[in-house]
């Protein structure tokens, strides 16, 4: 997956470089050329039929990156086998296509084309798998510090830090072409030459992209001749190779750095100092470093290679990049949490200030309420005193009125009893009138019921008379119809009797003819049996005449003839 992602990054630059109009689409003819070149550098068998089938449309219109991805995945990336091709050749092809459009060397640029391509590869290595590819400012600063660490002069400057701290760069990230311009500007401002930058870039490139954990000259003790020879050692995850010189062309051996390998410090002997050994299952390699610091660095690097091999990793900087990304995400989460906490604190502070203001308002309102309550209390007291005086006066007046009222009540009670008697009399009269009225109403209702019943019965009687007349007419018609049908049936019965007699006569004739036919058939059968007997007799005679008579043959023939005649009789 890591190799596929790395290849896809480089191919993405090649695809975008063919988009001359920045429309996000590339002509099909250019994509065919790009696909052919990718098949060549990736050592994949080229299938022109599949390529033509994928681009089988007649029009030569442009194709977007999404339209090219299915072919790229199915016919190129899915067929890539790690170790069968050189990754640098793919990077060189994609860099050549993309640099023609986006990066041109001029007098103001210190980086050579080779160094720019290596920085481009380093940029792709550190960039996340999000398109368009950009590099966060922290990763750009990390790469620049990494390059500066192997140079005599620091590459960073104030202008570079100001550029990386811009809001647009912090938000959207840094593109590779802006990054190369920044490096060129920093080199020009520092007065660096192309050679020193090239050495630093190559070393960082070999370390990060080439997965070289450490390299340098060390003394190694031979296994056969047991002499000490200076070799150029190159340590990668899983292997420690040693060469004659630092050009790494003539490899003299490879030490497998895996779970069966370990590194130990040795004491000085044989005139060598700062010694250590690398032990495998079959051999022990004794090595001498220039000084104790170099020995410790080599031991630490080999232990790192052993840890990567145990973890199944092939790149230290991949692990470091993941850790830095996790740290950035953690910092971003913490920054978000701090911003959220700050916002919440501000909200709480605002709410507290609002609550304090409301409390002050409540206190002021309470003081005003107390003052108004005191005034209201005084007013109520004065009103209460006045009300008490008024009530006393009214009580006296009420007592006088009560005495007068009692006298009036006694008079009114008498009048009320008289009126109640009158009311009861009127109610009795009203009840009797109501009963007489109800009786009259019931009598009228019964009269109307009787009349309605009488009318209904008369109507039913009239209907029944009509239906009786109708039934009588129907019965007369049916009687007439029955008489006619009876006469027709009598006539039909006479005809059927005549036909039956005639049929009986015909049947007698048929039976007589049948008896005659049976007699004829019996006579014919007798004649047939006689004819068959004659045929058999004449067949015997014919056979006898056709065969010569031997001794005893005549007697046998006579016996056969006699038997035949007797059977015929």
Distance between the termini: 119 Å
Summed up, the helix count is: 14
- Cα gyration radius (Å): 66 Å
Strand content: 5-15%
Q: Please mark out the parts with pLDDT under 50 across 5 or more consecutive residues, or reply none.
A: none
Morphology = flat
Specify the structural class: alpha+beta
Number of strands: 9
Report the sheet with the most strands, covering strand number, pairing sense and barrel closure. Answer: 7 strands, antiparallel
Mean pLDDT: 83
Question: Residue share in helices?
Answer: over 70%
* H/E element sequence: HEHHEHHHHHHHHEEEEEEEHHH
Strand ordering within the main sheet: 6-5-4-3-9-8-7
In short:
This protein is an alpha+beta fold. The chain is built from 14 helices and nine strands. 71% of the residues lie in helices and 9% in strands.
Describe the model.
The protein is α+β, with helices and mostly antiparallel strands and 569 residues long. 71% of the residues lie in helices and 9% in strands. The protein contains 14 helices and 9 strands. The strands form 2 sheets. It has a 7-stranded antiparallel sheet, covered by helices on one side. A two-stranded antiparallel sheet has the order 1-2. Strand 5 and strand 6 form a beta hairpin. Helix 1 packs parallel to helix 5 (87-102), helix 7 (137-149) crosses helix 11 and helix 13 (316-546) crosses helix 14 (553-568). The longest helix is centred in the C-terminal third of the chain and has 231 residues, at 316-546. The two termini are 119 Å apart.
